[in-house]
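User: quick one, sequence for these tokens?
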């Protein structure tokens, strides 16, 4: 069902949208493509191995190999006359901060779209349609508020909106991390809506604030870096949080004297709470990092990236 909409979006973009930046047509560098692909794949593989029963040494080896390939990739970019990705953008501290926030927010945001349907369908026996309807209010609030947050960013900048959004996310995740099998589903949906309200406040202002740190010649590289981190956050966050859920559930069932359907559901909720609490801790750390924005020199905000 998504294919017709995808094709329609591609056709409309090709017809209506132009290029906002000058095209430089850099040469595609084979070793760079290989290094980045292997590096990210090994990092994701290492994250996926958490809670899978793979020996800890193998997980560490996957992470180490991934980091090595990414280091080699970065080193090559600095030596190329026309780098595939100009990582000198990370020399700007507030761009680096924005990149870290993009990664952490996306890790939690994308993973919630996996964890909550698992909870609704396996823990409460709901259908896929019912689960989607419970998630719909959060999506609608986020869609509307993202536009509003962009307008607010144009007026007040990011040092208020970004920490505020992360604070709302932290509170919502902390509350969601307390759910029990008897918690009403509408309460879970309301907490999810609160979390997405926080996401909408922080998401586009953070990207805009990061990109405005870069000169025009590095804007394209900045966009590419942020887009890469969005994909990486999705790829890393999902196995991490699903692995934590599975690990928490297994530990609960192992320590439970009762092995029944009710115990399985209780174990699922225990794993869900563990996963969400880790997510709350990650976003809380991101909130503390975002307070550094108050030290940023005031400048004219650029239009928010939606």
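Assistant:
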């Amino acid at each position: 069902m998504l294919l017709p909409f995808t094709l329609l979006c591609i056709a409309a973009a090709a017809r209506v949208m132009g290029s906002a930046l000058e095209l430089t047509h850099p040469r595609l560098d084979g070793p760079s493509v290989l290094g980045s692909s292997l590096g990210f794949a090994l990092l994701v593989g290492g994250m996926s191995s958490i809670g899978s029963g793979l020996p800890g040494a193998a997980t560490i080896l996957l992470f180490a190999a991934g980091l090595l390939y990414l280091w080699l990739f970065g080193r090559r970019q600095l030596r190329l006359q026309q780098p595939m990705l100009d990582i000198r953008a990370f020399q700007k501290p507030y761009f680096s901060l924005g990149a870290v926030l993009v990664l952490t927010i996306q890790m939690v945001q994308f993973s919630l779209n996996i964890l909550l349907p698992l909870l609704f369908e396996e823990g409460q026996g709901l259908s896929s349609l019912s689960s989607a309807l419970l998630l719909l209010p959060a999506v609608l609030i986020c869609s509307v508020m993202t536009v509003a947050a962009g307008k607010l960013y144009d007026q007040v900048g990011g040092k208020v909106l970004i920490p505020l959004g992360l604070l709302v996310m932290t509170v919502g995740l902390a509350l969601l991390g307390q759910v029990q099998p008897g918690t009403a589903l509408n309460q879970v949906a309301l907490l999810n809506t609160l979390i997405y309200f926080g996401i909408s406040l922080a998401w586009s202002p953070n990207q805009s604030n990061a990109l405005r740190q870069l000169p025009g010649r590095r804007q394209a590289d900045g966009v590419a870096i942020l887009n890469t981190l969005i994909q990486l956050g999705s790829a890393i966050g999902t196995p991490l949080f699903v692995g934590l859920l599975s690990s928490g559930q297994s530990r609960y069932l192992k320590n439970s004297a009762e092995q029944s359907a009710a115990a399985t559901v209780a174990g699922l909720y225990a794993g869900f709470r563990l996963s969400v609490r880790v997510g709350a801790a990650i976003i809380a750390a991101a909130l503390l990092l975002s307070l550094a924005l108050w030290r940023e020199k005031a400048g004219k905000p650029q239009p928010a990236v939606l």
